[in-house]
């Protein structure tokens, strides 16, 4: 389950790692492009405002220059002067003089047909006023903007106010007062115009990027086609794509590297230890003289989150190789005391054997942990036996120190799987051991033609000679049991009696086995085939 979960998470992360930088880069580009385009629109709105003010200033100058002493208006000299002024002015198309509220003459000469004066839309300071949409006699085709002062009126083409060089997809506009549009350089969009004239504002909608500025009494604005404006992003995308791809590749590589690390057996084991996924099962040890359960061997089992069991033959070598055996042994000690303290306190003749690896033995680290746990729980140190394989005793001087320290602390020490490693008589003689466990391969060979069958009696004799207690492992048949009993072996464990049991079942087995030969639960335990998932493999 965990492996699958990690794989799924890694795959999702890899996809995200691939996509996210690209999406982030694209998003960032877009945000920057929109912000830049809005600034661009604001700039153009400002230029439009400047242009409109220039036009108004030009019209004001023209109007003041047109004035002549009273009584000389519309004289040939005055008309010539009006013509000259209109020609010189950059923004003004024509100038007219009104007498008694009616047009008397223009730069073209006296006006035969009298035209009434249109009331102003906007009053400016200094006696100037503006009419937004005037339909003059002289420019019938197009409505004009007009500025008046005294009896004079100057005509201005509205487009002069928005006469700013722009990109083709951009529209400029100028308005006055609340919602009075004066001039627009391009297409119109009524809804957008309302927003812009009400301005100042800046933003983006489904079709436009826009901005408007207000400098009373004028509001200038600019908007551009959104698709066109963002179109140049395509080039930026193309430029940034390789960079995004590079970042994505690096991230995907990182995700794969991290998930590989997490999926490595070592990492999985470390996580399992941290999450305390281990339980201890207890294989009963039987006193062959009376059939009573006098001890148990604590055997670790790894219960994966998906319910799968993993046997110690798989994870103990890995833990030893990677140095994870120390925290695992700490966990074993903690679990054994947690599981068995009450039973051990209730039956002082009962003991539990724990397996200590060669590395534990060399470091000696397990002993203070064990001493602390035993002291805290009120269990006698002699009730915890220590088993170490022959491997643990190879470096005899170091091992001897560790064994002595453990025995000094009150524990019994046994050599495990005897006969399978590098043991020699001299090794055995040199170590202050209490017990020897005969490996199950020698027990299996009893009463068979196997070559090892001849070795078994010698191991037993040697152990007797060294005054070691003997425990036979892997007893599966009555025949083996009878042989061992006859050979003076006192203690035995094996499937003949029980597989390794969970703590609560071991308590029942032990209780039952207080009666010689065992009761119902012992028979059940013998009959179990799946009780210990690992042993039954
Ligand atoms: N065929 C057969 N097998 C039997 C029979 N009776 C018991 N066994 C199995 O023989 C092994 C005895 O443990 P071991 O020799 O200490 O060998 C242990 C021990 O060296 C190591 N181990 C187990 N728990 C721990 C631990 O907590 N710490 C350390 N360092 N090593 C451990 O893993 C080894 C394997 O343990 P398990 O798989 O639990 O296997 C156990 C047990 O289930 C039987 O009648 N027939």
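Sequence proposed for the structure above (537 residues):
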């Amino acid at each position: 389950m965990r492996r699958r979960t990690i794989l799924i998470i890694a795959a999702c992360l890899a996809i995200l790692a691939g996509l996210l930088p690209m999406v982030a880069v694209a998003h960032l580009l877009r945000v920057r492009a929109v912000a830049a385009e809005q600034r661009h629109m604001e700039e153009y709105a400002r230029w439009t405002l400047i242009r409109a003010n220039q036009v108004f200033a030009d019209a004001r100058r023209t109007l003041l220059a047109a004035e002549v002493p009273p009584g000389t208006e519309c004289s040939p000299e005055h008309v010539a002067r009006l013509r000259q002024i209109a020609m010189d002015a950059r923004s003004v198309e024509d100038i007219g003089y009104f007498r008694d509220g009616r047009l008397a003459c223009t730069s073209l000469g006296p006006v035969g047909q009298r035209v009434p004066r249109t009331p102003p839309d906007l009053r400016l300071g200094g006696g100037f006023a503006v009419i937004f949409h005037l339909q003059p006699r002289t420019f019938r085709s197009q409505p004009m903007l007009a500025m008046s002062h005294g009896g004079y009126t100057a005509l201005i083409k509205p487009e002069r106010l928005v006469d700013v060089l722009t990109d083709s997809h951009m529209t400029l506009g100028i308005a006055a007062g609340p919602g009075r549009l004066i001039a627009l350089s391009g297409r119109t969009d009524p809804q957008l115009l309302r927003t812009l004239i009400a301005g100042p504002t800046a933003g983006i909608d489904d079709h436009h990027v826009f901005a408007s500025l207000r400098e009373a009494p004028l509001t200038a604005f600019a908007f551009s086609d959104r698709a066109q404006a963002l179109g140049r992003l395509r080039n930026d995308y193309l430029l940034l794509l390789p960079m995004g791809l590079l970042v994505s590749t690096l991230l995907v590589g990182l995700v794969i590297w991290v998930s590989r690390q997490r999926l490595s057996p070592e990492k999985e084991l470390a996580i399992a230890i941290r999450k305390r996924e281990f339980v201890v099962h207890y294989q009963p040890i039987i006193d062959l003289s009376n059939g009573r359960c006098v001890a148990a061997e604590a055997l670790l089992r790894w219960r994966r989150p998906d319910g799968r069991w993993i046997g110690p033959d798989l994870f103990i070598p890995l833990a030893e190789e990677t140095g994870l055996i120390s925290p695992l042994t700490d966990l074993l000690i903690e679990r054994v005391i947690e599981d068995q303290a009450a039973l051990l306190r209730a039956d002082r003749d009962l003991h539990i054997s724990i397996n200590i690896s060669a590395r534990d033995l060399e470091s000696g680290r397990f002993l203070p942990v064990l001493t602390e746990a035993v002291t805290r729980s009120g269990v006698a140190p002699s009730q915890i036996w220590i088993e170490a394989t022959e491997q643990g005793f190879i470096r005899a001087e170091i091992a001897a120190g560790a064994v002595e320290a453990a025995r000094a602390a009150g524990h019994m020490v046994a050599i495990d799987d005897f006969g399978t490693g590098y043991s020699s008589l001299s090794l055995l003689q040199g170590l202050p051991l209490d017990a020897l466990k005969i490996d199950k391969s020698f027990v299996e060979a009893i009463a068979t033609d196997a070559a090892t069958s001849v070795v078994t009696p010698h191991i037993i004799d040697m152990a007797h000679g060294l005054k070691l207690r003997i425990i036979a492992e892997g007893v599966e048949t009555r025949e083996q049991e009878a042989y061992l009993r006859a050979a003076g072996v006192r203690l035995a464990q094996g499937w003949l009696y029980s597989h390794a049991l969970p703590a609560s079942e071991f308590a029942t087995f032990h209780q039952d086995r207080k009666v010689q030969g065992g009761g119902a639960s012992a028979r059940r335990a013998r009959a179990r085939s799946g009780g210990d998932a690992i042993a039954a493999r």
